[in-house]
């Protein structure tokens, strides 16, 4: 099959006519970096934040070999693999965690700019610490998602920063002369007696988002019959750590598709002394869990896929939670009241009742029929 950015798919992520797998920022990054990539040694090109494979496979199609790549969402990683298989490019790249091995000796790095400045700070520090001295970092994105603060973050770790002309509402920042690199470390913040740890890019960072706070306030106090709970879409692990702390006999399984969230949740569990009872996994939905295996699941579902808001994400999560719950098991969910998820919960899980509601959020419990 002939390679084309237009032929890339987002699967297994949400697919819809208005959601694309490659955009103008991907194309501009590939064009701006073309001459630099042509001179790179095999194994010295790194791609970070590739949505669904446009940058990795575009570079591979142009002749790059031994590409190292990191994508925070597991769905993006799986989409890259699926797209590579279709175009016969699976052998040209390796997916790696966001650590020193990813960027060691890199000569060119292509980066889709993250929305989070802390995530950008972690990446810039890592590249500056371990890439080749002559490395050139091409960091691009849609102008509407970029800010001058991103320039300032890159200047913390690079001596020279150039800015390209905008094209199709996209722009690329080009950073050279790395200095004062450092490996990412989780940030920490204490809320009462709970320590929250977060690497850059984890949703809500070291704060506790108001939806999670509302859910925690209304989870049942008596869970003596629950030997293992699931914190589904766990983020930084606030619910998982809280459940483990409040119920010393309970084990908790926490999962998220975000690599940054998983690393953060592990750090949060450890910081609160419950790391031995909290298992954290990177997973797409609950695919690693067998059916009818759980009696209690807590969920604060996301409503966005990347930067796109899409209402199809939560119902998929409700359906997978229903698959994993035993008959009579409970799904405790917090959601923005304007999204009106209750009919979907009734249909996909079972009888659903409202536990609490405030000006913005609703907490419900659904019993698996």
UniProtKB/TrEMBL annotation:
Gene3D superfamilies: Vaccinia Virus protein VP39. Keywords: Cytoplasm, Methyltransferase, rRNA processing, Transferase. InterPro entries: DNA_methylase_N6_adenine_CS, RlmG_N, RsmC/RlmG, SAM-dependent_MTases_sf, Small_mtfrase_dom. PROSITE patterns: N6_MTASE (PS00092). Residues 7-176 form the RlmG N-terminal domain. The keyword Transferase applies. One of its GO terms (biological process) is methylation. One of its GO terms (molecular function) is methyltransferase activity. Pfam families: MTS, RLMG_N. It comes from the Bacteria. Residues 195-364 form the Methyltransferase small domain. The keyword Methyltransferase applies. This is Methyltransferase. It comes from Microbacterium salsuginis. The lineage of its organism: Bacteria, Bacillati, Actinomycetota, Actinomycetes, Micrococcales.
């Amino acid at each position: 099959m002939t390679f084309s950015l237009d032929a890339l798919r987002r699967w297994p992520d949400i697919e819809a006519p208005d959601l694309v797998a490659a955009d103008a920022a991907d194309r501009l990054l590939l064009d701006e970096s073309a001459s630099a990539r042509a001179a790179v040694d095999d194994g010295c090109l790194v791609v970070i934040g590739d949505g669904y494979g446009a940058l990795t496979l575009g570079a591979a199609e142009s002749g790059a070999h031994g590409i190292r790549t990191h994508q925070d969402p597991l769905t993006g990683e799986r989409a890259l693999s699926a797209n590579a298989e279709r175009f016969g490019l699976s052998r040209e790249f390796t997916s790696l965690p966001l650590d020193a091995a990813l960027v060691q000796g890199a000569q060119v790095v292509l980066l889709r700019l993250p929305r989070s400045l802390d995530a950008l700070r972690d990446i810039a520090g890592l590249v500056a610490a371990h890439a080749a001295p002559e490395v050139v970092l091409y960091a691009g994105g849609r102008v509407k998602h970029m800010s001058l603060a991103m320039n300032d973050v890159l200047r913390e770790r690079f001596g020279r920063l150039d800015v390209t002309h905008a094209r199709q509402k996209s722009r690329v920042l080009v950073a050279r002369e790395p200095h004062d690199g450092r490996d990412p470390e989780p940030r920490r913040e204490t809320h009462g007696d709970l320590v929250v740890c977060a690497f850059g890019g984890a949703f809500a960072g070291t704060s506790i988002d108001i939806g999670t706070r509302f859910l925690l306030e209304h989870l049942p106090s008596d869970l003596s019959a629950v030997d293992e709970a699931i914190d589904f879409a766990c983020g930084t692990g606030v619910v998982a750590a809280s459940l483990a702390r409040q119920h010393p006999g309970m084990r908790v399984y926490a999962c998220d598709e975000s690599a940054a969230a998983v690393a953060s949740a592990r750090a949060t569990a450890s910081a609160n002394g419950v790391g031995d009872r909290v298992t954290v996994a990177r997973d797409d939905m609950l695919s690693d869990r067998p059916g009818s295996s759980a009696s209690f699941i807590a969920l604060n579902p996301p409503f966005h896929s990347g930067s796109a808001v899409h209402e199809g994400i939560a119902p998929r999560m409700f359906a997978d939670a229903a698959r994993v719950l035993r008959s009579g098991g409970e799904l405790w969910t917090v959601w923005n009241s304007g999204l009106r998820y209750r009919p979907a919960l009734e249909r996909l899980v079972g009888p659903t009742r409202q536990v609490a509601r405030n000006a913005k959020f609703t907490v419900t419990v659904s019993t698996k029929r």
